[in-house]
Amino acid sequence: MKNLNFPGLPRILVVDDEEAIREGLRSLLQGESVAVETADGLDVALARIEQRTFDVVLFDVHLQGAGGFEAVSRLRRRASPPDVILLAGYGTQANTVEAMRSGAFDVIEKPIHRDRVMATIRRCLEMRQASRELAWAQERLRDVTSTEVLGLSAPVRALEQRIEEVAQSPDTTVLIVGERGTGKELVARRIHESSVRRHGPFVTVNCAAQTENLLESELFGHEAGAFTNAGRDGKDGLFALAAGGTLFLDEIGDMGKALQAKLLRVLQERTFRRVGGVRDIAADVRIVVASTKDLKKEAEAGRFREDLFFRLNVMTVETPALRTRAQDVPLLAHFFLDQFARHMGKNLTGFTEEATETLCEYEWPGNVRELRNVIERAAIACPLGMIDECHLPAFSGGPLDGSDEIARNVIVLNGTDCSIRTLEGQLVRKVLESTNWNISRAASLLGINRTTEAARALGIDRTTLYNKIRVYEIGQRPGRETVEVS
Questions:
Q1: pLDDT tens readout for residues 299-317
Q2: Cβ atoms within 10 Å of 199's Cβ, excluding its own
Q3: CATH homologous superfamily, domain 11-135
Q4: CA distances in angstroms from 29 to 82, 98, 336, listed in the order given
Q5: Nearest to 317 by CA among 151, 139, 209, 192
Q6: What residue segments make up the domains of the chain, in order of their start?
Q7: Bridge partners of residue 85, in order along the sequence
Q8: Which residues touch 377 (CB under 8 Å, ≥6 apart)?
Q9: What pLDDT score does 478 carry?
Q10: Is 189 in contact with 231 (CB distance < 8 Å)?
Q11: CA angle 153, 157, 163 (to 5 degrees)
Q12: Is the pLDDT higher at 357 or at 12?
């Protein structure tokens, strides 16, 4: 069974009480890059299946004492069941419907013909392979949509590798650092889902959103009557609710120092006490924290406990800013557009070349969060079809500085061609080179800016610049990476 992408050789079990048929099929299949075993009865077959996983079982439907189609049902009800191909005597083809109802993949009539056997087994293995690939794709899609750690760039690949490394140690404290909007909570969730704690709860709390007293009660819970308005039955905190799973503390740098001391004790002793309580409670939870502040500098300045910083800084994961992975912008933009199009019930098919250039050139100070908001706005503004520049905000492409100024005598006409066309072509090329092919800046310098009254009066915009690039055959920006998204 060449060209089948199975993990190892496909494994086939032949079950028949006639030795000639068993050995004949074994001889036939061994030359086809599959692993073959045989059994002369149902009990032996079940024992073999208990010991190892088989992809296909060739089973004699009239096996003595096997119970026919009931035996097929028993094979198919097992965990990770094999596909069953029935071997039936002549004249039993009318039982095919009953065989399919019992879970059989197909029925091969005796006497067995080589081509029929090989075609049926190949079709069975190809469908099994396709089913595995579909299951993998669906699992990957769940990972992506639940975490949105999406990209093909080197920073994302490094982040994914770091997440896998961290996930192998399910009790180690993790510190996630990065700018706002880079997906620190999503990375924390991905760490949780990749670890053995994935079956436990994932609980989050923003330390900057509550006062210190409220945050203490939220984290540790409280006993009855521990403070004014405390419930008569007490309350479990997030440490208790996250037992067996992961507790994510966002913006840990904004936690008060008194509460920092209590958190340090939890990390050291792996126990905590409710507010107003005297009994230690085991903390079976992994702590993942995140901060946009530089905790080392905060500790040096005395605003964060140095001993807590060292205790938190066991494993560090840094989320990259979107401007450092511009290659991922088209992929992320299409991902978000697909989500919003489905939610809004719109037929939005993608982005024009001009819109893609605009998205790639912007520096995204708000990172992935800002990109998501921009795509949502564009999806609302675009009635159908492709997102164009007019559906996007008026990005500046970054501030202009003196390096983008064009000196007066930089364009030299060679030969006798002094036409306006030649002059304009050289001017466009010079501007593009001087701005490192930043379309926003080049358009501004050339006076092709949709935001000016003159531009509107003349009826020109950045699309005109793209047209001139094509007309004068100026070419692509040197070293530009492209990402194809279907």
A1: 999 999 999 999 999 999 9
A2: 9
A3: Response regulator (3.40.50.2300)
A4: 17, 27, 48
A5: 192
A6: 11-135, 149-320, 326-391, 402-471
A7: 58, 106
A8: 391, 392, 393
A9: 47
A10: no
A11: 145
A12: 12
Extract the tokens encoding 300: 């040096």
Q: 3.30.70.3270, 3.40.50.300, 1.25.10.10, 3.40.50.2300: which CATH number matches 149-320?
A: 3.40.50.300
The number of residues making up the chain comes to 486
CATH class of 326-391: mainly alpha
Range with the poorest average pLDDT among 27-31, 71-75, 153-157, 194-198 = 71-75
Given a cut of 60, is residue 93 above it in pLDDT? no
C-beta separation of 247 from 237 below 8 A:
no
Render pLDDT for 383-442 as a digit per residue (tens, 0 to 9). 888 999 889 987 644 433 333 344 444 455 555 666 666 766 777 777 766 666 665 556
Residues facing 56 on adjacent strands: 12, 83
Tokens of 246: 């992961």
Cα 420 to Cα 415: distance, rounded to the nearest angstrom: 14
How does strand 221-222 pair with strand 235-236?
antiparallel
3-state secondary structure the chain: CCCCCCCCCCEEEEECCCHHHHHHHHHHHHCCCCEEEEECCHHHHHHHHHHCCCCEEEEECCCCCCCCHHHHHHHHCCCCCCEEEEEECCCCHHHHHHHHHCCCCEEEECCCCHHHHHHHHHHHHHHHHHHHHHHHHHHHHHHHHHHCCCCCCHHHHHHHHHHHHHHCCCCCCEEEECCCCCCHHHHHHHHHHHCHHHHCCEEEEECCCCCHHHHHHHHHEECCCCCCCCCCCCEECHHHHCCCCEEEEECHHHCCHHHHHHHHHHHHHCEECCECCCCCEECCCEEEEEECCCHHHHHHCCCCCHHHHHHHCCEEEECCCHHHHHHHHHHHHHHHHHHHHHHHCCCEEEECHHHHHHHHHCCCCCHHHHHHHHHHHHHHHCCCEEECHHHCCCCCCCCCCHHHCCCCCCCCCCCCCCCHHHHHHHHHHHHHHHCCCCHHHHHHHCCCCCCCHHHHHHCCCHHHHHHHHHHCCCCCCCCCCCCCCC
> What are 239's two structure tokens?
């440490």
How far apart, in whole angstroms, are the C-alpha atoms of residue 425 and residue 429? 6
CB 420 within 8 A of CB 383: no
Rounded Cα gap, residues 339 and 332, in angstroms: 11
Is the CA virtual torsion 174, 180, 185, 188 positive or negative? Answer: negative
Cis status, amide bond into 330, omega within 30 of 0: no
- Burial label for 412, CB within 10 Å (0-12, 13-18, 19+), is exposed
- Same fold: 11-135 with 149-320: yes
